[in-house]
Amino acid sequence: MAGFVLHAREPEAARLLERLTVPAGTLAPQGTEWVLRWGTEAADPPGVWTLNPRDAVRRCLDISARERLLRLGGIKTEASHGKMPGARRGVYPWEYWIPVFHLETLAIYERKNTQPLIQRGTGEQAGAYRRLAPGERGFHARRAAREAVKAAYALGLDFALVGVAATVDGHTIVREIRPCPKLNAELAVLYADAIDRFAEEREREREEAADRSLLLGADPEFLLLRPDGKVANAAKFLEKQGGVGCDAVVQSGHRLIHPLVELRPEPAADPHRLAARIGRSMREADRLIPDRSLLWLAGSMPVPGVPLGGHVHLSGIPLTSRLLRVLDNYAALPLVMLESASGPKRRPRYGILGDFRRKGHGGFEYRSLPSWLESPGLAAGVLCLVYCLARHERELSWRPLAEEEMQRAFYTIDKEALRPAVARIWEEIRRTETYAACRKDLQALESRTLAGDDWEESRDVKPAWGLTAVPAAGVMHNRESPSEKTGASPPFVL
Questions:
Q1: Which phi and psi (to 5°) does residue 420 adopt?
Q2: In this model, does residue 1 exceed pLDDT 90?
Q3: How confident is the model at residue 249, as a pLDDT?
């Protein structure tokens, strides 16, 4: 049997069960590939992919634990927003209830308020909220939907009913999360249809597994630093489009600048081939950027206010919450051992756990990793690691980041707390079939992550890639920019 909905005869589940085509009951049969838990306190079936695992539901129902986890992920809540200077708690011009299922929103229900203080309600009363058609979803609704998906994922949930509000001072806050919501007729249809679609997708995934071809892509970034410590404008040398282009950063006041160089090699079915293409892209960048006085910097945030990404693209494999959590636990977690003190400053705006974006080609982009362009060896190791994880997601079931203390250690880069988990992660990776094909690169990456030595973000990466180095004399790398001292935007040459 492929899938099963596990419940405990809760009255609120009755409407859902009468509409489901997926088998359901109070005890999951042997051989089930995935289980969706709806409200039951029964233990999770061992070795089975479980949606809304019991511990995640319990954490969500513990308001203090929920607040702490959401805060770690950079998600504003009613409690955290109320502590912000000038915040007007309880003043919500827009309120939303958003049913979330498996990384997607099923609908958006909006209520616009004209009263200055909003009376709390269940959010499920007929007429209290209006369901928005896709064309009616404005800025606040779209942002509320994104925050709802992020909040559910941050708590380890796969589905929930999420209450969100937009405040008068422009913030989007999560007010409530219900992992086992009471269902009216409309919500029951939404969730039943979503569960049935999920079951169909898993069945199709199983049938097409032999014919699928995994493709790996990437668009890692680096920045250009002048000898006087100012960030150079990459748009001076590069177009926005193309295999080597410039990318934007939004500064305060919504000012758009283009300080980043982004490599966009063609994807490949083999991580070593993709690594070779990245090497060619670096050589092409060297040709297009003739100023030899510039430092090329990679890492998390080598200059305050300029976060860098090492996004990896995957296609030919379905995006699932299981795959996303495998990437978090088996890629983002080990790689944080290489990050320097700038890593926590990049987060939570960039690089949070589970950061993804669907792409037009049918695949997705995993966005949690910083720029790994420090060296060809590191780049090859990261690409081999992601490739290995994508090939073996079903075998890699440990979730250390499900624990609050591990998430805190990740976001604060507490390497001593993380090291035992990283060692176990590598033990599991070594047991995969793909490890042998990537042994050299993965062994080198394992050694570096277990050592936990910071990468040197201030070091020019060009020599490591066999490119022309900056002469040592006359380079003044200002690590403490005005932005770090005063909160102003970092120094750019436009």
A1: -60, -40
A2: no
A3: 67
Q: Residues 440-478: pLDDT tens digits? A: 999 999 999 999 999 999 999 999 999 976 665 444 444
Percent of the chain with pLDDT over 90: 73
User: Which residues have C-beta within 8 Å of that of residue 437, sequence separation ≥ 6?
Assistant: none
454 burial level (CB within 10 Å; 0-12, 13-18, 19+): middle
What is the C-alpha radius of gyration for the chain, rounded to an integer number of angstroms? 24
Pairing assessment for the beta strands 159-166 and 94-101 based on DSSP bridges: antiparallel
Backbone φ, ψ for residue 257 (5° rounding): -125, 165
Domain boundaries, the chain: 74-179, 214-493
- Tens digits of residue pLDDT in 286-341: 999 999 999 999 999 999 989 999 999 999 999 999 999 999 999 999 999 999 98
pTM for the full predicted model = 0.91
First to last CA, the chain: 60
- Residue 471 is classified by DSSP as P
Closest alpha carbon to 88 in 178, 176, 165, 177: 165
Counting every residue written for the chain, the total comes to: 494
**338-350 as b/e: b if 16+ CB within 10 A:** bbbebbbebbbeb
What is the separation of C-alpha 233 from the centre of its chain, rounded to a whole number of angstroms? 28
Single out the residue of 20, 10, 40 nearest to residue 28, CA to CA: 40
- Categorize the per-residue pLDDT at 152 as very low, low, confident or very high, splitting at 50, 70 and 90: very high
Select the CATH number that applies to the domain covering 214-493 from these four: 3.30.590, 3.30.1490, 3.30.200, 1.25.40.
3.30.590
Report how far apart, in Å, the C-alpha atoms of 315 and of each of 54, 73, 209, 224 are: 31, 26, 13, 31
Measured distance CA(307)–CA(203) in Å, rounded: 40
How much is the pLDDT for 91? Answer: 65
CATH number of the structural domain 74-179: 3.30.470.20
